[in-house]
Design brief:
Blueprint: E1 32-33, E2 36-37, H1 55-60, H2 76-100, H3 105-127, H4 133-157, H5 161-181, H6 189-214, H7 228-257, H8 265-291
Antiparallel strand pairs: 1-2
Helix pairs in contact: 2-4, 2-8, 3-4, 4-8, 5-7, 5-8, 6-7, 7-8
Length: 294
């Protein structure tokens, strides 16, 4: 099953561009974890678990094997470091845009242009066979400019909205991680299929709503209005963002367990950044709606 988030489709940690954890059946001749195959079993010229004396014990008990102790394999430290670099680039871009660009129509046009460039860079990375740090950090920089401008615009009308949105994003991501680590949510193929179907339907409805608003078919933003209906849609969008965070966590967990190449930590950072940006933007709108016209 192909990995994705609400904004862009992206590669997962497997050779067939799918989630390692969502493979329905083991590959012939390959080691299986429960019913899952190790997509990296033949990379690098052999089985990365061949040197791990505990791998077979893990497999027999149906538990995800520990990542092999070899160089060039992704670790949690790699994911944290790359994610920190990517999110830090977003933050720096946002701070500079906020500080240097006044709230004007020109700034808004610059924000839209930055968002389009970020989209193009993200799409190029999505279809590349390997992670490109330059593309990912470029995406983060332009996304930061976009977020900085729109955050300043929201703050000019709803004072403190960006700060509350940051806190809300941290709360949602932290709670999602807690629930995931506690095992209250199991990311299975069925869970992913249902969630993806809902997400695709949501995006299609939002696209139709945007077209109707653009051509005058509906007023006041339609489903994306600043009223109660807009708040309900915003809450649904944030829930979808939390759903995609669970897919991101599963993707990272499987990548480490199966010994994904170290450079794929950049893909983990890329996916997390896109999901967190999605949640932040929706949280910003939701804070503004609940703040009213004050």
């Amino acid at each position: 099953m192909r990995s994705s988030n609400p904004v862009f489709s992206r590669r997962g940690f497997s050779r067939d561009n799918g989630y390692a954890g969502f493979n329905a059946a083991p590959q012939a001749g390959g080691p299986a974890v429960g019913t899952q195959a190790n997509p990296y079993a033949q990379q690098g010229g052999g089985n990365p678990y061949a040197q791990n004396p505990y791998a077979q014990q893990d497999l027999q008990h149906g538990a995800p094997p520990q990542a092999p102790v070899t160089t060039g394999r992704m670790t949690m430290d790699d994911v944290v470091m790359r994610s920190g670099m990517t999110l830090g680039t977003v933050a720096v871009g946002a701070i500079l845009a906020w500080a240097l660009l006044p709230v004007t129509s020109t700034s808004f046009g610059l924000a839209i242009g930055s968002a389009l460039i970020a989209f193009v860079l993200a799409m190029v990375q999505t279809f590349k066979r390997k992670a490109s740090p330059a593309l990912i950090l470029g995406y983060a920089a332009f996304e930061g400019v976009f977020l900085g401008v729109i955050s300043e615009m929201y703050n000019s009308q709803w004072s403190g909205a960006p700060f509350q949105a940051v806190l809300g994003t941290m709360a949602v991501s932290g709670a999602t991680l807690l629930v995931y680590r506690a095992g209250w949510i199991r990311v299975t193929a069925r869970y992913a299929r249902i969630g993806m179907a809902i997400a695709i339907a949501f995006i299609l409805v939002m696209a139709v709503n945007l077209l109707l608003v653009a051509f005058g078919g509906v007023e006041d933003g339609g489903l994306r209005s600043m009223g109660p209906l807009g708040a309900i849609v915003g809450i649904i969008a944030i829930i979808l963002g939390a759903f995609f965070l669970t897919l991101d966590f599963k993707q990272i967990e499987d990548g480490i367990a199966y010994g994904a190449p170290r450079e794929e930590a950049w893909l983990a950072a890329f996916g997390l950044t896109m999901t967190l940006v999605w949640i932040y933007v929706e949280m910003l709108r939701l804070v503004a709606i609940f703040s009213g016209d004050d």
